[in-house]
């Protein structure tokens, strides 16, 4: 029976497994990013496909952040010649995504990590996503397990929404809180309004968990280990009616009005897996003792200068380990 799910633009039968990854190796389903991080979260990371940062072992995907200076040498963060990623860069060549040179208070990202996506192979709209994974531990580390708009019909980046399947801060005081939810835009309200949360007695990085979302035309539900802990449902007039609450641009809300009630989450999305560090994923809150301020142009430098403190919290579990991914049509 034909269902509501579309895969690469075509309808799929209800109940069918439309995507499955068991990680016997890193297949051509995945495109690794090779670029400097930037919009929308400006994490303090250079994404590469190094075997130390991205590898498959024992039928599981491992993504581990390391120090830039471990790869390029002590002091390279401030090396005046900078780093040009060349033609292998997956970002926009000639921009800061592909070439960066330190000057004054601007330094290279202190961290090398990895991010992969199905952008060239698989995108879908509506369905059930199930991912078994162990989340990373360590100060200012966070997992990227997300669905990202393929067409960006409603605008670039967060203007077309992002569905976060599982997010948790890596530090010991944040690691017991798991978040899943929807990102609507760049303001702090738009980033957090659609988040749902569940707490645990033990850190989420201690063991593997099964994360699940059910993405339907009128709602998105978030669950872990067979427990649904939150559902994002649009108001009757759609998310565009929340423009003032979300603090988004009126032009963006107007574009959403041209979609369904679930817009911007009514377009095909692809799967992204990665590990980020720092940047704008961590808000400036009194209870969050960050070594940088989000809006400070010296944020990356401040983070680098604090290296001894945060790097001492990283260890064997400072990696995202993914056992499998399955996507079912509804």
Secondary-structure blueprint:
Blueprint: E1 2-7, E2 10-13, E3 17-21, E4 31-32, E5 35-36, E6 45-47, E7 54-57, E8 60-63, E9 66-67, H1 68-72, E10 83-84, E11 99-100, E12 111-113, E13 115-117, E14 124-125, E15 127-134, E16 141-149, E17 162-167, E18 177-183, H2 188-192, E19 194-199, E20 209-216, E21 219-224, E22 227-232, H3 243-246, H4 250-257, E23 269-277, H5 299-305, H6 307-311, E24 320-328
Name a few traits of the molecule.
6 helices, mainly beta, Jelly Rolls, seven-stranded antiparallel sheet, single chain, globular, eight-stranded antiparallel sheet, 330 residues
Detailed description of the structure:
The chain has six helices and 24 strands. The protein is 10% helix and 36% strand. It is globular. It has a single domain (2-33, 115-328), classed as Jelly Rolls (Sandwich). The strands form five sheets. Strands 3, 7, 8, 15, 20, 21, 22 and 24 form an eight-stranded antiparallel β-sheet that branches. β5 and β6 (45-47) form a beta hairpin. One of its GO terms (biological process) is carbohydrate metabolic process. Residues 21-330 form the GH16 domain. GO terms for molecular function: hydrolase activity, hydrolyzing O-glycosyl compounds.
């Amino acid at each position: 029976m034909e269902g509501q799910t579309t895969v690469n633009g075509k309808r799929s039968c209800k109940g069918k497994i439309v995507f499955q990854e068991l990680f016997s190796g890193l297949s051509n389903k995945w495109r690794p990013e090779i670029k400097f991080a930037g919009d929308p979260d400006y994490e303090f990371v250079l994404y590469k496909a190094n075997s130390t940062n991205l590898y498959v072992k024992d039928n599981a995907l491992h993504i581990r952040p390391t120090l830039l200076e471990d790869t390029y040498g002590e002091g390279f963060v401030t090396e005046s010649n900078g780093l040009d990623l060349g033609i292998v860069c997956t970002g926009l060549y000639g921009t800061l995504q592909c070439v960066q040179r330190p000057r004054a208070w601007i330094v290279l990202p202190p961290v090398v990590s990895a991010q992969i996506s199905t952008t060239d192979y698989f995108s879908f709209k509506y369905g059930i996503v199930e991912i078994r994974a162990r989340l990373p531990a360590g100060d200012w580390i966070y997992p990227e397990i997300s669905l990202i708009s393929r067409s960006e019909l409603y605008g670039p980046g967060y203007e077309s929404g992002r569905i976060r399947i599982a997010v948790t801060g890596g530090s010991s005081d944040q690691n017991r809180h798991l978040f899943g939810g929807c990102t609507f835009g760049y303001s702090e309200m738009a980033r957090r309004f659609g988040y749902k949360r569940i707490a645990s007695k033990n850190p989420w990085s201690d063991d593997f968990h099964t994360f699940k979302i059910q993405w339907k035309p009128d709602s998105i539900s978030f669950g872990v280990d067979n427990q649904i802990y939150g559902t994002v449902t649009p108001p009757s007039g759609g998310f565009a009616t929340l423009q003032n609450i979300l603090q988004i641009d009126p032009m963006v809300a107007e574009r959403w009005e041209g979609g369904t009630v679930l817009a911007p989450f009514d377009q095909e999305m692809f799967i992204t897996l990665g590990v980020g560090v720092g940047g704008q994923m961590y808000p400036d809150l009194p209870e969050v003792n960050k070594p940088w301020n989000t809006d400070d142009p010296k944020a990356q430098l401040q983070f680098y200068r604090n290296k001894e403190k945060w790097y001492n919290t990283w260890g064997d579990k400072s990696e995202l380990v993914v056992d499998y991914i399955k996507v079912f049509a509804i």
